[in-house]
Amino acid sequence: MTAASAPLPPRFTATADGRMTPAMREAWQADGLLVLENWLLAGDCQALMDRAAQLVQEKGSLDQMTVFSTTKRQQQNQSYFLESADKIRCFFEDEALNEDGQLTVPLERAINKMGHALHDLDPLFQRSSYDPRIGRLARDAGQKDPRALQSMMIFKHPHIGGEVTCHQDSTFLYSDPTSVIGFWIALEDATVDNGCLYALPGRHKEGLKERLHQGPDGAKMEQVAALTWENDAAVPLEVPQGSLVLLHGELPHLSGANRSAKSRQAYALHVIDGACDYPADNWLQRPADFPVRALP
Ligand code: FE2
Q1: To 5 degrees, how large is the angle CA 78–CA 154–CA 128?
Q2: How far away, in angstroms, is 71 Cα from ligand 1 center?
Q3: For residue range 157-171, what is the model confidence (pLDDT) as tens digits?
């Protein structure tokens, strides 16, 4: 992630009803991403961050005990993750827990992300996720039956927020045909200093590189196509608070670590097309009594 070699994607102001203008549609198809400023008001962003902080205080210590086991830590962490499809769970930064499972930073700075059913379990996150503008955007982006599959609060705390390596969301949230769209909302200004998103515009057209299969014996990565992504070609998506970045499921994207003194909190919702087949070997499986719901 050095000097960006590709032009920065265009930015738009969100429309009142969420519908894409012809220019937005063109950018979405060309780039596989869409930057919409003024999606949320500053007060709405703050309310979501306040609620997330409250959830961390309510759940963080218990989750800390659950994830930590000196004997079977890796195995336990894996099931802790896999069983989070219908829960709100805190996931810790690697550097936040020492060998003895004790926090190395205060709890409010220790959490990497929280997921993966915030949109169905918390009223405030539910309101932002089932906002009719989201459904309209998903339909304008090509989905027939948009369904809110998975949600995450991503904290990217100052100094400790870890990097996310280059990936496509369809690798992890696969459907046949592929359909997932990421709705990434900046709850704070995102800059190159505090770990903003980077993406390779247009490279969604190359299709899927890898697919993760989850089986009884663990996860297996299948190579689907021999694609290579150069981090140097990734462009930074610096956006002000309240912006929405729409990400195509095959768009390679990443984000750097946050070594700055400012946090970079974001809320990400992943929406899948109910008209596509959702395989039983995806890691994320909702129980039968807690199905994935359609967006209005
Ligand atoms: Fe992603």
Answers
A1: 115
A2: 31
A3: 999 888 899 999 999
